[in-house]
Design brief:
seven-stranded antiparallel beta sheet, 48% strand
Length: 328
Amino acid sequence: MPDTCATRELSWNGFPAVQIGNDYVRAVVVPTLGARIVSLVSRIQSGGEREWLWRNPYLEPQLPDFGAPYEQEFDLGGWHECFPSVSRTHYPKGPWAGSEIPEHGELWCQPWKAKVSASTDEAEVRTVAYGVRFPYRFERSIYIRKDEPKMVLSYTANNLTIFPFPFLWSGQLCFDVRPGMSLAMPAQDMIVFSSKDGRFGHLGSIQTWPELISVNDEYFDVSIFPAKESGIAVKLYGAAPRSLLLREPNTNAGLQLQINNEQISHLALWLNFGGWCGMPKGGNYYNVTICPSIGTLDDLELAVHHFKEHGQLQPKNLRTWSFEIAFQ
Protein backbone atom coordinates (compact mmCIF):
# COMPACT_ATOMS: atom_id res chain seq x y z
CA MET A 1 0.00 0.00 0.00
CA PRO A 2 1.23 3.57 -0.64
CA ASP A 3 2.87 5.64 2.10
CA THR A 4 0.60 8.56 1.17
CA CYS A 5 -2.89 8.90 -0.24
CA ALA A 6 -3.05 7.94 -3.87
CA THR A 7 -5.42 7.05 -6.68
CA ARG A 8 -4.64 5.24 -9.87
CA GLU A 9 -6.38 3.86 -12.90
CA LEU A 10 -6.25 0.14 -13.52
CA SER A 11 -8.08 -2.68 -15.25
CA TRP A 12 -10.34 -5.07 -13.36
CA ASN A 13 -11.35 -8.12 -15.41
CA GLY A 14 -11.08 -5.99 -18.53
CA PHE A 15 -13.13 -3.08 -17.15
CA PRO A 16 -11.63 0.35 -16.41
CA ALA A 17 -11.35 0.82 -12.65
CA VAL A 18 -10.10 3.33 -10.10
CA GLN A 19 -8.13 2.44 -6.98
CA ILE A 20 -8.02 4.72 -3.94
CA GLY A 21 -5.77 3.95 -1.00
CA ASN A 22 -3.33 4.91 1.73
CA ASP A 23 -0.96 2.97 3.97
CA TYR A 24 -3.85 1.15 5.71
CA VAL A 25 -6.67 0.59 3.24
CA ARG A 26 -7.46 0.56 -0.45
CA ALA A 27 -10.61 0.15 -2.50
CA VAL A 28 -11.24 -0.54 -6.18
CA VAL A 29 -14.27 1.00 -7.93
CA VAL A 30 -15.54 -0.01 -11.38
CA PRO A 31 -17.63 2.92 -12.70
CA THR A 32 -18.87 1.00 -15.75
CA LEU A 33 -20.41 -1.68 -13.53
CA GLY A 34 -22.67 0.60 -11.51
CA ALA A 35 -19.70 2.03 -9.56
CA ARG A 36 -19.48 -1.32 -7.78
CA ILE A 37 -16.72 -1.52 -5.19
CA VAL A 38 -15.11 -4.83 -6.09
CA SER A 39 -12.25 -4.87 -3.57
CA LEU A 40 -11.79 -3.51 -0.06
CA VAL A 41 -8.42 -4.42 1.44
CA SER A 42 -6.96 -3.46 4.81
CA ARG A 43 -3.57 -4.02 6.41
CA ILE A 44 -3.87 -6.25 9.47
CA GLN A 45 -1.87 -6.03 12.68
CA SER A 46 -0.49 -9.55 12.44
CA GLY A 47 1.01 -8.74 9.04
CA GLY A 48 -0.30 -9.06 5.53
CA GLU A 49 -3.62 -7.88 4.17
CA ARG A 50 -7.29 -8.83 4.38
CA GLU A 51 -9.74 -8.69 1.47
CA TRP A 52 -13.12 -7.99 3.05
CA LEU A 53 -15.49 -8.24 0.10
CA TRP A 54 -16.98 -11.49 -1.15
CA ARG A 55 -16.89 -12.30 -4.84
CA ASN A 56 -19.25 -14.71 -6.56
CA PRO A 57 -17.25 -17.74 -7.77
CA TYR A 58 -19.86 -18.66 -10.38
CA LEU A 59 -20.25 -15.41 -12.35
CA GLU A 60 -17.88 -13.59 -14.67
CA PRO A 61 -18.21 -9.80 -14.85
CA GLN A 62 -20.18 -8.54 -17.84
CA LEU A 63 -21.80 -5.29 -18.86
CA PRO A 64 -25.20 -5.15 -17.17
CA ASP A 65 -28.49 -5.00 -19.02
CA PHE A 66 -30.96 -2.55 -17.54
CA GLY A 67 -33.72 -4.49 -15.83
CA ALA A 68 -32.01 -7.87 -16.16
CA PRO A 69 -32.42 -10.47 -13.37
CA TYR A 70 -29.86 -9.44 -10.78
CA GLU A 71 -29.39 -12.57 -8.68
CA GLN A 72 -29.09 -15.05 -11.53
CA GLU A 73 -26.87 -13.00 -13.88
CA PHE A 74 -25.20 -10.05 -12.17
CA ASP A 75 -24.76 -10.77 -8.46
CA LEU A 76 -20.98 -10.41 -8.58
CA GLY A 77 -20.61 -9.73 -4.87
CA GLY A 78 -18.65 -6.73 -3.65
CA TRP A 79 -20.54 -3.57 -2.78
CA HIS A 80 -23.26 -1.83 -4.76
CA GLU A 81 -26.02 0.69 -4.14
CA CYS A 82 -29.77 0.02 -4.34
CA PHE A 83 -32.03 2.99 -5.19
CA PRO A 84 -34.95 3.84 -5.33
CA SER A 85 -35.99 0.31 -4.27
CA VAL A 86 -34.28 -2.97 -3.46
CA SER A 87 -36.95 -5.40 -4.61
CA ARG A 88 -38.39 -5.32 -8.10
CA THR A 89 -41.60 -3.36 -7.71
CA HIS A 90 -43.70 -0.52 -9.13
CA TYR A 91 -43.31 3.11 -8.21
CA PRO A 92 -46.02 3.89 -5.67
CA LYS A 93 -47.21 7.45 -6.41
CA GLY A 94 -46.84 10.70 -8.28
CA PRO A 95 -46.55 11.04 -12.07
CA TRP A 96 -44.44 7.86 -12.18
CA ALA A 97 -47.01 5.69 -10.36
CA GLY A 98 -46.96 2.18 -11.80
CA SER A 99 -43.55 2.52 -13.49
CA GLU A 100 -41.48 -0.62 -12.97
CA ILE A 101 -38.35 -0.47 -10.80
CA PRO A 102 -35.80 -3.19 -11.65
CA GLU A 103 -34.53 -5.71 -9.13
CA HIS A 104 -31.98 -3.93 -6.88
CA GLY A 105 -32.97 -0.58 -8.38
CA GLU A 106 -31.55 1.46 -11.23
CA LEU A 107 -27.98 2.17 -10.16
CA TRP A 108 -26.15 -1.16 -10.50
CA CYS A 109 -27.23 -1.65 -14.12
CA GLN A 110 -25.82 1.54 -15.64
CA PRO A 111 -22.40 3.19 -15.95
CA TRP A 112 -21.54 6.04 -13.58
CA LYS A 113 -19.28 9.01 -14.21
CA ALA A 114 -16.20 9.18 -12.00
CA LYS A 115 -14.10 12.11 -10.83
CA VAL A 116 -10.86 11.53 -8.93
CA SER A 117 -8.84 13.95 -6.82
CA ALA A 118 -5.75 13.25 -4.72
CA SER A 119 -2.97 14.97 -2.84
CA THR A 120 -0.31 13.71 -0.45
CA ASP A 121 -2.71 14.07 2.49
CA GLU A 122 -6.12 13.10 1.12
CA ALA A 123 -7.89 11.45 -1.80
CA GLU A 124 -11.45 11.17 -3.06
CA VAL A 125 -13.38 9.26 -5.71
CA ARG A 126 -16.76 10.76 -6.64
CA THR A 127 -19.15 8.76 -8.78
CA VAL A 128 -22.43 10.06 -10.21
CA ALA A 129 -25.44 8.47 -11.90
CA TYR A 130 -28.87 9.70 -13.01
CA GLY A 131 -32.24 8.03 -12.86
CA VAL A 132 -33.34 6.17 -15.97
CA ARG A 133 -37.11 6.06 -15.45
CA PHE A 134 -37.14 8.52 -12.55
CA PRO A 135 -35.85 12.10 -12.18
CA TYR A 136 -32.93 12.09 -9.74
CA ARG A 137 -29.18 12.55 -9.54
CA PHE A 138 -27.27 10.18 -7.22
CA GLU A 139 -23.71 10.75 -6.02
CA ARG A 140 -21.39 8.71 -3.81
CA SER A 141 -18.03 9.91 -2.53
CA ILE A 142 -15.25 7.75 -1.04
CA TYR A 143 -12.83 9.86 0.99
CA ILE A 144 -9.60 8.92 2.79
CA ARG A 145 -6.84 10.78 4.60
CA LYS A 146 -3.18 9.97 5.07
CA ASP A 147 -2.36 7.86 8.16
CA GLU A 148 -6.04 7.12 8.95
CA PRO A 149 -7.18 3.46 8.80
CA LYS A 150 -10.68 4.40 7.67
CA MET A 151 -12.74 5.74 4.80
CA VAL A 152 -15.78 8.01 4.73
CA LEU A 153 -18.73 7.32 2.43
CA SER A 154 -20.89 10.34 1.65
CA TYR A 155 -24.07 10.35 -0.44
CA THR A 156 -26.24 12.98 -2.10
CA ALA A 157 -29.56 12.33 -3.83
CA ASN A 158 -31.20 15.21 -5.75
CA ASN A 159 -34.83 15.39 -6.79
CA LEU A 160 -34.86 17.12 -10.19
CA THR A 161 -38.63 17.69 -10.37
CA ILE A 162 -41.41 19.64 -8.69
CA PHE A 163 -42.98 16.48 -7.19
CA PRO A 164 -42.10 14.71 -3.92
CA PHE A 165 -40.00 11.59 -4.53
CA PRO A 166 -40.29 8.69 -2.02
CA PHE A 167 -37.37 6.25 -2.10
CA LEU A 168 -35.53 3.41 -0.44
CA TRP A 169 -31.73 3.32 -0.35
CA SER A 170 -29.63 0.37 0.74
CA GLY A 171 -25.87 0.03 0.51
CA GLN A 172 -25.18 -3.66 -0.12
CA LEU A 173 -21.81 -4.52 1.49
CA CYS A 174 -21.27 -8.23 0.88
CA PHE A 175 -18.49 -9.56 3.10
CA ASP A 176 -16.23 -12.57 2.74
CA VAL A 177 -16.67 -14.25 6.13
CA ARG A 178 -15.80 -17.57 7.76
CA PRO A 179 -17.23 -19.67 10.59
CA GLY A 180 -16.16 -18.32 13.98
CA MET A 181 -16.09 -14.69 12.91
CA SER A 182 -18.28 -12.33 14.92
CA LEU A 183 -20.61 -9.41 14.37
CA ALA A 184 -21.05 -7.20 17.44
CA MET A 185 -23.89 -4.72 17.66
CA PRO A 186 -26.51 -3.82 20.27
CA ALA A 187 -29.37 -6.23 20.90
CA GLN A 188 -32.64 -5.23 19.26
CA ASP A 189 -35.84 -6.61 17.80
CA MET A 190 -35.55 -7.08 14.03
CA ILE A 191 -38.21 -7.77 11.41
CA VAL A 192 -37.82 -10.80 9.18
CA PHE A 193 -37.97 -9.91 5.49
CA SER A 194 -37.40 -13.49 4.37
CA SER A 195 -35.90 -16.78 5.54
CA LYS A 196 -35.25 -19.95 3.62
CA ASP A 197 -38.26 -22.28 3.83
CA GLY A 198 -39.74 -19.99 6.50
CA ARG A 199 -37.30 -21.44 9.04
CA PHE A 200 -37.12 -18.19 11.03
CA GLY A 201 -40.54 -16.89 10.07
CA HIS A 202 -41.95 -14.98 7.14
CA LEU A 203 -42.33 -11.32 6.23
CA GLY A 204 -43.19 -9.38 9.37
CA SER A 205 -42.06 -11.99 11.92
CA ILE A 206 -39.94 -10.66 14.79
CA GLN A 207 -36.55 -11.99 15.89
CA THR A 208 -34.31 -10.50 18.59
CA TRP A 209 -30.68 -9.97 17.62
CA PRO A 210 -28.42 -11.81 18.18
CA GLU A 211 -30.39 -14.95 19.08
CA LEU A 212 -32.60 -16.37 16.36
CA ILE A 213 -35.29 -18.93 17.16
CA SER A 214 -36.48 -21.22 14.39
CA VAL A 215 -40.05 -22.42 13.97
CA ASN A 216 -38.78 -25.75 15.35
CA ASP A 217 -37.46 -24.02 18.50
CA GLU A 218 -33.80 -24.22 17.49
CA TYR A 219 -31.66 -21.46 19.02
CA PHE A 220 -28.80 -19.81 17.14
CA ASP A 221 -26.58 -17.01 18.44
CA VAL A 222 -25.68 -15.63 15.02
CA SER A 223 -23.33 -12.98 16.39
CA ILE A 224 -20.80 -15.83 16.14
CA PHE A 225 -21.00 -17.17 12.60
CA PRO A 226 -21.93 -20.87 12.49
CA ALA A 227 -20.67 -23.66 10.25
CA LYS A 228 -21.84 -23.80 6.65
CA GLU A 229 -23.78 -26.94 7.52
CA SER A 230 -26.18 -24.80 9.58
CA GLY A 231 -27.85 -23.88 6.29
CA ILE A 232 -29.10 -20.54 7.62
CA ALA A 233 -30.36 -17.94 5.16
CA VAL A 234 -32.34 -15.04 6.63
CA LYS A 235 -32.73 -11.33 5.97
CA LEU A 236 -33.51 -9.04 8.90
CA TYR A 237 -34.32 -5.34 9.22
CA GLY A 238 -33.89 -3.21 12.32
CA ALA A 239 -32.98 0.26 13.49
CA ALA A 240 -29.53 1.45 12.41
CA PRO A 241 -27.08 1.29 15.34
CA ARG A 242 -24.38 3.90 15.75
CA SER A 243 -21.69 1.26 15.43
CA LEU A 244 -21.16 -2.39 14.62
CA LEU A 245 -17.99 -4.46 14.45
CA LEU A 246 -17.12 -7.39 12.20
CA ARG A 247 -14.13 -9.31 13.55
CA GLU A 248 -12.00 -12.25 12.47
CA PRO A 249 -10.51 -13.99 15.56
CA ASN A 250 -7.65 -15.79 13.82
CA THR A 251 -5.99 -12.56 12.67
CA ASN A 252 -7.74 -10.14 15.05
CA ALA A 253 -8.65 -8.08 11.99
CA GLY A 254 -11.68 -5.89 12.51
CA LEU A 255 -13.97 -3.77 10.34
CA GLN A 256 -16.20 -1.25 12.11
CA LEU A 257 -19.14 0.59 10.57
CA GLN A 258 -19.83 3.92 12.25
CA ILE A 259 -23.26 5.06 11.13
CA ASN A 260 -24.81 8.49 11.35
CA ASN A 261 -28.19 7.12 12.41
CA GLU A 262 -29.78 10.55 12.41
CA GLN A 263 -29.45 10.35 8.62
CA ILE A 264 -29.57 6.57 8.07
CA SER A 265 -32.65 5.08 9.68
CA HIS A 266 -32.33 1.30 9.20
CA LEU A 267 -29.94 -1.60 8.98
CA ALA A 268 -30.54 -4.80 7.03
CA LEU A 269 -28.59 -8.01 7.56
CA TRP A 270 -28.50 -10.82 5.03
CA LEU A 271 -27.04 -13.81 6.88
CA ASN A 272 -26.27 -16.60 4.43
CA PHE A 273 -24.43 -19.41 6.15
CA GLY A 274 -24.66 -22.05 3.45
CA GLY A 275 -28.40 -21.65 3.06
CA TRP A 276 -28.92 -20.07 -0.37
CA CYS A 277 -27.47 -19.54 -3.83
CA GLY A 278 -28.87 -17.35 -6.60
CA MET A 279 -27.46 -19.62 -9.31
CA PRO A 280 -29.58 -22.59 -10.46
CA LYS A 281 -26.59 -24.98 -10.41
CA GLY A 282 -24.24 -23.32 -7.92
CA GLY A 283 -23.37 -24.46 -4.43
CA ASN A 284 -24.81 -22.39 -1.60
CA TYR A 285 -22.91 -19.24 -0.72
CA TYR A 286 -21.34 -18.41 2.64
CA ASN A 287 -21.41 -14.64 3.11
CA VAL A 288 -22.88 -11.81 5.14
CA THR A 289 -24.29 -8.65 3.61
CA ILE A 290 -24.53 -5.61 5.88
CA CYS A 291 -26.82 -2.93 4.52
CA PRO A 292 -27.05 0.59 5.97
CA SER A 293 -30.47 1.67 4.70
CA ILE A 294 -32.99 4.47 4.52
CA GLY A 295 -36.43 2.88 4.72
CA THR A 296 -37.33 -0.71 5.38
CA LEU A 297 -38.14 -4.13 3.95
CA ASP A 298 -36.82 -3.81 0.37
CA ASP A 299 -40.06 -3.02 -1.50
CA LEU A 300 -40.72 0.69 -2.04
CA GLU A 301 -44.39 0.16 -2.84
CA LEU A 302 -44.92 -1.69 0.45
CA ALA A 303 -42.77 0.81 2.34
CA VAL A 304 -44.92 3.74 1.16
CA HIS A 305 -48.39 2.20 1.32
CA HIS A 306 -48.04 -0.21 4.24
CA PHE A 307 -44.97 0.17 6.45
CA LYS A 308 -44.76 4.00 6.18
CA GLU A 309 -40.99 3.86 6.60
CA HIS A 310 -39.06 5.30 3.66
CA GLY A 311 -36.99 8.26 2.60
CA GLN A 312 -38.36 11.26 0.76
CA LEU A 313 -36.78 13.86 -1.50
CA GLN A 314 -38.67 17.10 -1.42
CA PRO A 315 -39.38 18.89 -4.73
CA LYS A 316 -36.27 20.42 -6.29
CA ASN A 317 -34.32 19.49 -3.17
CA LEU A 318 -31.64 17.08 -2.02
CA ARG A 319 -30.77 14.78 0.87
CA THR A 320 -27.36 13.79 2.18
CA TRP A 321 -26.15 10.96 4.42
CA SER A 322 -22.86 9.33 5.37
CA PHE A 323 -21.10 6.58 7.30
CA GLU A 324 -17.53 5.53 8.03
CA ILE A 325 -15.65 2.26 7.78
CA ALA A 326 -12.72 1.95 10.20
CA PHE A 327 -10.22 -0.91 10.21
CA GLN A 328 -8.51 -2.51 13.19
